[in-house]
Amino acid sequence: AFRNILRNVQNTNVLFGDTLEILESLRKSAGAGKPTTFNKVIANIPYSITQDLVIELLQHQWETAVLCVQKEFAQKLREKEKIAVIVNDCCKVKVAREVPASVFYPKAVDSSIIVMEQKHTLNYDFWEFLKSVYKDKNRNVSNVAKDYPVSMAKKKVHQLTAEELKKLYGMNKK
User: Average pLDDT of 95-121?
Assistant: First the structure.
């Protein structure tokens, strides 16, 4: 049905299938360090793969993504979670609408429609660094990083701003 609606729009390519597999395939076929480019993504994705799909999506160049996600994931994007740090670094994000569970059939979970406007592609090494330090997010920076500014030594990882995390990453790059 959706494909038929867009059939006569010449600059549109509708892809149906496993989005994660499609994006991974596009990235691999482009080659290392050469992100594929498209301009819009509109998707209602399986909630169980939301984080993996968003991380994969951030490795490509695009303008706008409109995603229906579980409400809890949308809330994480407003908190000091590692996914929030990386998504908000790469994109301007807003919750466009809340979607109650009752509008799905069969009844599902409360959801949110988020709109992401990309600023730049993901620095995957920064994402790996965040995953590493967030394993100990309640520990002091001095206990999780080899090199750190004295001003951060006694701060907990989860208390750091995105800019402080980037600075810490820069000091600890391999």
Answer: 94
